[in-house]
Protein backbone atom coordinates (compact mmCIF):
# COMPACT_ATOMS: atom_id res chain seq x y z
CA UNK A 1 0.00 0.00 0.00
CA UNK A 2 1.19 3.54 -0.64
CA UNK A 3 0.24 6.94 0.69
CA UNK A 4 -2.35 7.23 -2.07
CA UNK A 5 -4.37 4.22 -0.91
CA UNK A 6 -7.28 6.15 0.61
CA UNK A 7 -9.19 9.11 -0.74
CA UNK A 8 -8.75 11.65 2.04
CA UNK A 9 -11.78 13.70 2.80
CA UNK A 10 -11.03 17.38 2.71
CA UNK A 11 -10.71 19.01 6.10
CA UNK A 12 -13.47 20.64 6.75
CA UNK A 13 -16.29 23.05 6.82
CA UNK A 14 -18.45 21.84 9.71
CA UNK A 15 -19.01 22.82 13.31
CA UNK A 16 -16.37 20.37 14.48
CA UNK A 17 -13.77 21.28 17.04
CA UNK A 18 -10.05 20.85 16.87
CA UNK A 19 -7.47 20.74 19.63
CA UNK A 20 -4.70 23.20 20.33
CA UNK A 21 -1.82 22.31 22.64
CA UNK A 22 0.04 25.31 23.98
CA UNK A 23 3.50 25.04 25.61
CA UNK A 24 2.78 21.62 27.08
CA UNK A 25 5.50 20.17 29.32
CA UNK A 26 5.21 16.90 31.23
CA UNK A 27 6.97 15.07 34.03
CA UNK A 28 6.92 11.66 35.66
CA UNK A 29 8.15 12.53 39.14
CA UNK A 30 11.28 14.65 38.56
CA UNK A 31 11.85 13.22 35.08
CA UNK A 32 10.79 15.77 32.46
CA UNK A 33 9.61 13.95 29.34
CA UNK A 34 8.05 16.73 27.23
CA UNK A 35 9.29 20.28 26.73
CA UNK A 36 6.92 23.08 25.67
CA UNK A 37 5.01 21.29 22.93
CA UNK A 38 2.74 23.52 20.86
CA UNK A 39 0.58 21.93 18.17
CA UNK A 40 -2.66 22.67 16.31
CA UNK A 41 -4.80 19.66 15.51
CA UNK A 42 -7.34 21.11 13.06
CA UNK A 43 -11.02 20.15 13.18
CA UNK A 44 -12.23 17.32 10.97
CA UNK A 45 -8.74 16.16 10.06
CA UNK A 46 -6.27 13.45 11.00
CA UNK A 47 -3.05 14.54 12.72
CA UNK A 48 -0.35 11.86 13.02
CA UNK A 49 2.27 11.97 15.78
CA UNK A 50 5.45 10.24 14.67
CA UNK A 51 8.91 9.80 16.16
CA UNK A 52 11.23 7.23 17.71
CA UNK A 53 10.35 5.23 20.79
CA UNK A 54 10.42 7.13 24.08
CA UNK A 55 10.14 10.67 22.69
CA UNK A 56 6.82 11.33 24.44
CA UNK A 57 4.14 10.75 21.79
CA UNK A 58 1.89 8.59 23.98
CA UNK A 59 2.40 10.91 26.95
CA UNK A 60 1.37 13.85 24.79
CA UNK A 61 -1.69 11.92 23.56
CA UNK A 62 -2.75 11.13 27.15
CA UNK A 63 -2.39 14.79 28.06
CA UNK A 64 -4.91 15.63 25.32
CA UNK A 65 -7.76 13.97 27.23
CA UNK A 66 -6.57 14.25 30.82
CA UNK A 67 -5.49 10.63 31.15
CA UNK A 68 -1.91 11.65 32.03
CA UNK A 69 -3.06 12.88 35.44
CA UNK A 70 -4.34 9.38 36.28
CA UNK A 71 -0.73 8.10 36.47
CA UNK A 72 0.75 8.49 39.97
CA UNK A 73 3.50 11.13 40.04
CA UNK A 74 2.58 12.50 36.61
CA UNK A 75 2.49 16.28 36.23
CA UNK A 76 2.15 18.78 33.42
CA UNK A 77 2.10 22.45 32.56
CA UNK A 78 0.67 24.38 29.62
CA UNK A 79 -2.77 24.44 28.05
CA UNK A 80 -4.91 22.21 25.85
CA UNK A 81 -7.75 24.04 24.15
CA UNK A 82 -10.88 22.36 22.83
CA UNK A 83 -13.19 24.81 21.12
CA UNK A 84 -10.96 27.53 22.56
CA UNK A 85 -11.47 26.40 26.17
CA UNK A 86 -8.70 24.93 28.30
CA UNK A 87 -9.62 21.35 29.21
CA UNK A 88 -7.49 21.82 32.36
CA UNK A 89 -9.48 24.82 33.60
CA UNK A 90 -10.84 24.30 37.12
CA UNK A 91 -14.40 24.32 35.75
CA UNK A 92 -13.77 21.28 33.51
CA UNK A 93 -14.55 17.83 34.91
CA UNK A 94 -12.05 15.20 33.72
CA UNK A 95 -14.80 12.66 33.02
CA UNK A 96 -16.68 15.14 30.84
CA UNK A 97 -13.45 15.99 28.99
CA UNK A 98 -12.84 12.29 28.36
CA UNK A 99 -16.32 11.83 26.91
CA UNK A 100 -15.68 14.68 24.44
CA UNK A 101 -12.17 13.45 23.66
CA UNK A 102 -12.26 9.64 23.32
CA UNK A 103 -9.34 7.21 23.17
CA UNK A 104 -8.75 4.04 21.17
CA UNK A 105 -5.84 1.99 22.49
CA UNK A 106 -3.13 -0.15 20.95
CA UNK A 107 -4.76 -3.38 22.06
CA UNK A 108 -8.49 -3.69 21.28
CA UNK A 109 -10.32 -3.66 24.61
CA UNK A 110 -14.03 -4.44 24.14
CA UNK A 111 -15.80 -6.00 27.11
CA UNK A 112 -15.20 -9.63 26.04
CA UNK A 113 -18.29 -11.26 27.51
CA UNK A 114 -20.66 -8.37 26.74
CA UNK A 115 -22.66 -8.52 23.50
CA UNK A 116 -21.57 -6.52 20.47
CA UNK A 117 -24.75 -4.46 20.83
CA UNK A 118 -24.11 -3.63 24.50
CA UNK A 119 -20.43 -2.95 23.85
CA UNK A 120 -21.42 -0.13 21.49
CA UNK A 121 -23.68 1.37 24.16
CA UNK A 122 -21.31 0.81 27.09
CA UNK A 123 -19.55 4.19 26.88
CA UNK A 124 -22.90 5.94 26.96
CA UNK A 125 -23.98 3.99 30.02
CA UNK A 126 -20.74 4.86 31.81
CA UNK A 127 -21.26 8.53 30.97
CA UNK A 128 -24.88 8.31 32.20
CA UNK A 129 -26.24 9.39 28.80
CA UNK A 130 -29.74 8.12 27.95
CA UNK A 131 -30.69 7.29 24.35
CA UNK A 132 -34.19 6.89 22.92
CA UNK A 133 -33.54 4.78 19.85
CA UNK A 134 -30.74 2.44 20.84
CA UNK A 135 -31.11 0.20 17.77
CA UNK A 136 -30.58 3.11 15.37
CA UNK A 137 -27.62 4.40 17.32
CA UNK A 138 -25.96 0.96 17.44
CA UNK A 139 -26.49 0.53 13.71
CA UNK A 140 -25.20 3.97 12.79
CA UNK A 141 -22.09 3.65 14.98
CA UNK A 142 -21.30 0.19 13.62
CA UNK A 143 -21.83 1.48 10.07
CA UNK A 144 -19.53 4.45 10.67
CA UNK A 145 -16.91 2.10 12.12
CA UNK A 146 -17.20 -0.07 9.00
CA UNK A 147 -18.38 -3.12 10.96
CA UNK A 148 -22.14 -3.28 10.41
CA UNK A 149 -22.18 -5.70 7.47
CA UNK A 150 -19.96 -8.15 9.34
CA UNK A 151 -21.95 -8.21 12.59
CA UNK A 152 -25.55 -7.23 11.78
CA UNK A 153 -26.75 -10.85 12.09
CA UNK A 154 -25.00 -11.53 15.39
CA UNK A 155 -25.33 -8.43 17.54
CA UNK A 156 -26.06 -10.51 20.64
CA UNK A 157 -22.84 -12.51 20.47
CA UNK A 158 -19.95 -11.50 22.74
CA UNK A 159 -17.52 -8.79 21.63
CA UNK A 160 -14.66 -11.11 22.52
CA UNK A 161 -15.73 -13.53 19.76
CA UNK A 162 -14.73 -11.07 17.03
CA UNK A 163 -11.34 -11.01 15.30
CA UNK A 164 -8.74 -8.51 16.55
CA UNK A 165 -9.45 -6.09 13.72
CA UNK A 166 -13.21 -6.36 14.22
CA UNK A 167 -12.72 -5.77 17.96
CA UNK A 168 -10.75 -2.62 17.21
CA UNK A 169 -13.54 -1.35 14.94
CA UNK A 170 -16.02 -2.24 17.70
CA UNK A 171 -13.97 -0.06 20.05
CA UNK A 172 -14.13 2.74 17.48
CA UNK A 173 -17.94 2.28 17.28
CA UNK A 174 -18.14 2.43 21.09
CA UNK A 175 -16.12 5.66 21.09
CA UNK A 176 -18.29 7.20 18.37
CA UNK A 177 -21.49 6.42 20.30
CA UNK A 178 -20.84 9.24 22.78
CA UNK A 179 -20.44 11.72 19.88
CA UNK A 180 -16.93 12.83 20.77
CA UNK A 181 -15.40 15.94 19.26
CA UNK A 182 -12.02 14.27 19.10
CA UNK A 183 -10.81 10.67 18.87
CA UNK A 184 -7.29 9.89 20.05
CA UNK A 185 -5.71 6.69 18.74
CA UNK A 186 -2.55 5.21 20.24
CA UNK A 187 -1.04 2.88 17.63
CA UNK A 188 -4.48 1.39 16.91
CA UNK A 189 -3.18 -1.08 14.32
CA UNK A 190 0.03 -2.29 15.91
CA UNK A 191 -1.61 -5.49 17.17
CA UNK A 192 -3.40 -6.18 13.86
CA UNK A 193 -2.57 -8.11 10.70
CA UNK A 194 -2.25 -6.21 7.39
CA UNK A 195 -5.85 -6.90 6.28
CA UNK A 196 -7.33 -5.74 9.59
CA UNK A 197 -4.99 -2.76 9.54
CA UNK A 198 -6.32 -1.81 6.16
CA UNK A 199 -9.94 -1.99 7.38
CA UNK A 200 -9.19 0.18 10.40
CA UNK A 201 -7.37 2.68 8.18
CA UNK A 202 -10.40 2.77 5.86
CA UNK A 203 -12.57 3.44 8.90
CA UNK A 204 -10.28 6.29 9.98
CA UNK A 205 -10.49 7.77 6.48
CA UNK A 206 -14.29 7.51 6.52
CA UNK A 207 -14.89 9.08 9.94
CA UNK A 208 -12.22 11.76 9.71
CA UNK A 209 -14.65 14.29 8.27
CA UNK A 210 -16.96 13.78 11.26
CA UNK A 211 -14.53 13.75 14.16
CA UNK A 212 -11.09 15.25 14.71
CA UNK A 213 -8.51 12.46 14.94
CA UNK A 214 -5.04 12.40 16.49
CA UNK A 215 -3.13 9.17 15.92
CA UNK A 216 0.23 7.90 17.19
CA UNK A 217 1.87 5.59 14.69
CA UNK A 218 5.28 4.04 14.15
CA UNK A 219 4.31 3.13 10.63
CA UNK A 220 5.45 5.83 8.20
CA UNK A 221 3.32 4.46 5.36
CA UNK A 222 0.30 4.53 7.65
CA UNK A 223 0.98 8.14 8.62
CA UNK A 224 1.13 9.03 4.93
CA UNK A 225 -1.97 7.03 4.08
CA UNK A 226 -4.30 8.32 6.78
CA UNK A 227 -3.16 11.74 7.98
CA UNK A 228 -3.61 15.28 6.72
CA UNK A 229 -1.14 16.76 9.22
CA UNK A 230 1.90 15.34 10.92
CA UNK A 231 4.14 16.22 13.86
CA UNK A 232 7.62 14.75 14.28
CA UNK A 233 8.67 14.27 17.92
CA UNK A 234 12.24 13.70 19.04
CA UNK A 235 14.10 13.51 22.35
CA UNK A 236 17.86 14.00 22.66
CA UNK A 237 19.73 11.60 24.96
CA UNK A 238 18.59 12.27 28.53
CA UNK A 239 16.45 15.20 27.37
CA UNK A 240 12.70 15.73 27.23
CA UNK A 241 10.92 15.19 23.93
CA UNK A 242 9.60 17.96 21.74
CA UNK A 243 8.36 18.65 18.24
CA UNK A 244 11.10 19.12 15.66
CA UNK A 245 8.71 19.89 12.84
CA UNK A 246 5.01 19.84 12.08
CA UNK A 247 2.99 20.62 9.00
CA UNK A 248 0.91 18.99 6.34
CA UNK A 249 1.73 15.33 5.82
CA UNK A 250 2.57 16.09 2.21
CA UNK A 251 5.13 18.70 3.25
CA UNK A 252 6.61 16.71 6.11
CA UNK A 253 7.23 13.66 3.95
CA UNK A 254 7.80 15.37 0.61
CA UNK A 255 9.80 18.43 1.63
CA UNK A 256 10.93 18.20 5.27
CA UNK A 257 12.61 21.39 6.47
CA UNK A 258 14.75 19.84 9.21
CA UNK A 259 17.42 17.26 8.29
CA UNK A 260 16.43 15.18 11.35
CA UNK A 261 12.88 14.92 9.99
CA UNK A 262 14.21 13.91 6.58
CA UNK A 263 16.38 11.21 8.15
CA UNK A 264 13.46 9.85 10.18
CA UNK A 265 10.81 9.81 7.48
CA UNK A 266 13.25 8.21 5.07
CA UNK A 267 13.94 5.45 7.60
CA UNK A 268 17.54 6.41 8.33
CA UNK A 269 17.00 6.13 12.11
CA UNK A 270 14.35 5.22 14.69
N1 LIG B 1 4.07 5.67 33.62
C1 LIG B 1 5.29 6.15 33.45
N2 LIG B 1 6.10 6.35 34.51
C2 LIG B 1 7.36 6.85 34.35
N3 LIG B 1 7.88 7.19 33.16
C3 LIG B 1 7.12 7.01 32.07
C4 LIG B 1 5.80 6.49 32.14
N4 LIG B 1 5.28 6.42 30.91
C5 LIG B 1 6.24 6.88 30.08
N5 LIG B 1 7.35 7.24 30.77
C6 LIG B 1 8.59 7.79 30.22
O1 LIG B 1 8.25 8.95 29.47
C7 LIG B 1 9.04 9.04 28.28
C8 LIG B 1 8.10 9.16 27.10
O2 LIG B 1 7.37 7.92 26.97
P1 LIG B 1 6.18 7.73 25.92
O3 LIG B 1 5.60 6.38 26.15
O4 LIG B 1 5.30 8.91 25.99
O5 LIG B 1 7.01 7.77 24.55
P2 LIG B 1 6.54 7.29 23.12
O6 LIG B 1 7.17 8.24 22.15
O7 LIG B 1 5.07 7.16 23.06
O8 LIG B 1 7.23 5.87 23.04
P3 LIG B 1 6.75 4.57 22.22
O9 LIG B 1 6.77 4.98 20.78
O10 LIG B 1 7.80 3.54 22.54
O11 LIG B 1 5.39 4.18 22.71
C9 LIG B 1 9.93 7.81 28.27
O12 LIG B 1 11.19 8.19 28.79
C10 LIG B 1 9.23 6.85 29.20
O13 LIG B 1 10.15 6.01 29.82
From TrEMBL:
Gene Ontology terms for molecular function: ATP binding; ATP hydrolysis activity; phosphate transmembrane transporter activity
Domain annotation ABC transporter: ranges: 19-265
Source domain of life: Bacteria
Annotated keywords: ATP-binding, Nucleotide-binding, Translocase, Transport
SMART domains to which the protein is assigned, alphabetical: AAA (SM00382)
CDD domains noted in UniProt: ABC_PstB_phosphate_transporter
ATP-binding is among the record's keywords: yes
A GO cellular-component term linked to this record: membrane
The keyword Mitochondrion is assigned to this record: no
Gene3D superfamilies the UniProt entry points to: P-loop containing nucleotide triphosphate hydrolases
InterPro entries documented for this protein: AAA+_ATPase (IPR003593), ABC_transporter-like_ATP-bd (IPR003439), ABC_transporter-like_CS (IPR017871), P-loop_NTPase (IPR027417), PstB-like (IPR005670)
One GO BP: phosphate ion transmembrane transport
Record-linked PANTHER family: ABC TRANSPORTER I FAMILY MEMBER 17
Protein name listed in UniProt: Phosphate ABC transporter ATP-binding protein
Organism, scientific name: Trebonia kvetii
Lineage: Bacteria, Bacillati, Actinomycetota, Actinomycetes, Streptosporangiales
Amino acid sequence: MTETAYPKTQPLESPLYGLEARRVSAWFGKHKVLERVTLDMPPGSVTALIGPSGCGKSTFLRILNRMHEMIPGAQLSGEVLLAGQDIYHASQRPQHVRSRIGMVFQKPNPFPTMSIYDNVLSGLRLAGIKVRDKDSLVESCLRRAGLWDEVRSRLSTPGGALSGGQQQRLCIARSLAVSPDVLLMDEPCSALDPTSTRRVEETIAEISSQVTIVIVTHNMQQAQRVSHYCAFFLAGAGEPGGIVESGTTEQLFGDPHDPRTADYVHGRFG
